[in-house]
Amino acid sequence: MAKKYFRNIALFFIIWLAVMVIYAVANRVTDLEYLWKFFLLPALFLGFIAALATTLEHLFKVKKGINWIFLGMAVAIDQGIKVYLFSLEWQSISIPLIKPVFFIEPTQNTLGSYLWVLLRLKQGSHLLNIILFSLIGIIFIEVWRFYVKRKRNSFWINGFIHLFLAGLAANLIDNAIWGGSLDYITIKPFYTFDLKDLYITLCELFLVTELMDNRLLKRFLKMPREESKKLNKDFITFVKRDFRLGKKGEDHNESGTGN
Q1: Distance between CA 18 and CA 205 in Å, rounded?
Q2: pLDDT tens digits for range 116-156
Q3: Sign (positive/negative) of CA torsion 46, 104, 70, 259?
Q4: Same domain, 157 and 111
Q5: Which end of the chain has fewer surrounding CB within 10 Å, N or C?
Q6: Mutual angle of helices 2-26 and 195-213, in 10-degree steps
């Protein structure tokens, strides 16, 4: 068990460091006082999350299906923070958390998605965001259901889908109601994020942990072409059957998730 704790903490820690090295190099940041806080403090936080999640993995049995209470609470917390900030003069808020790196400085991303910011677009369509991310959500849910049917419903894959859906639901609400995402935690000089972004970051780390636990990357890389084709065909068949029979309630056993 100790080995797994160490591996998961190191995994979360190293992934953060690797991504932030890219940010630091790209922006030519050389201030040592800044860099140690920028690298170390969030990495320690993610390491704590990894340790906590590993403990929860051993304490609780994973149940089938979606925990709607957890999902509702996660989205409610994200939206509750935004409701509170919108009730204030949020444009003028600047609260240092850990100088000179972390600040509470709300800013509204009217593009509705960090993807459009990365693409340096100046205008976005909230309806397009809602359609696009809804389709992505459907694909991810089907992949998850197909995976747990064939492999296992582990703590990490279950956590992945819950964190992903929480982030997705918050994103859809931001686009439909607020006209964009109100981000409020700034890592200077790089970017500003909110709670839903943390959900998405954690869901990615949970997915990597599942891949490590089940040695899936190695299996996929060494998978024969015929087996790969059969897997793709089985997934397409699963999706077709899912949408055709889901409303009739004839696919409960097929899904294996209780949905």
Answers
A1: 13
A2: 655 565 566 778 888 888 999 999 999 999 999 888 889 99
A3: negative
A4: yes
A5: N
A6: 130
Full residue range of the structural domain in which residue 194 is found: 65-255
CA angle 128, 132, 133 (to 5 degrees): 120
- In three-state secondary structure terms, 108 is strand
Pair 105, 185 in one domain:
yes
What are the tens digits of pLDDT across the range 65-97? 899 999 999 999 999 999 999 999 999 999 998
* Selection from 166, 163, 161, 139 nearest residue 148 by Cα: 161
Residue given tokens 């686009």 in the structure block: 175
DSSP of 4-66, one letter per residue?
Answer: HHHHHHHHHHHHHHHHHHHHHHHTT---HHHHHHHHHHHHHHHHHHHHHHHHHHHHSPPPSS-
Total domain count, the chain: 2
Mean pLDDT of 93-107: 89
State the burial class of residue 119 (Cβ atoms within 10 Å of its Cβ: 0-12, 13-18, 19+). exposed
d(CA 210, CA 212): 5
The residues with which 95 forms a beta bridge, in sequence order, are: 104
For residues 54 and 128, membership in a common domain is answered with no
Mean pLDDT of the residues in the chain:
84
Domain boundary among 44, 60, 76: 60
Domain shared by 55 and 83, yes or no: no
Kindly state whether residues 143 and 44 are assigned to the same domain.
Answer: no
Query: Which residues is 187 bridged to in the sheet?
Result: 102, 191
Q: Within this chain, do residues 41 and 155 fall inside the same structural domain, yes or no?
A: no
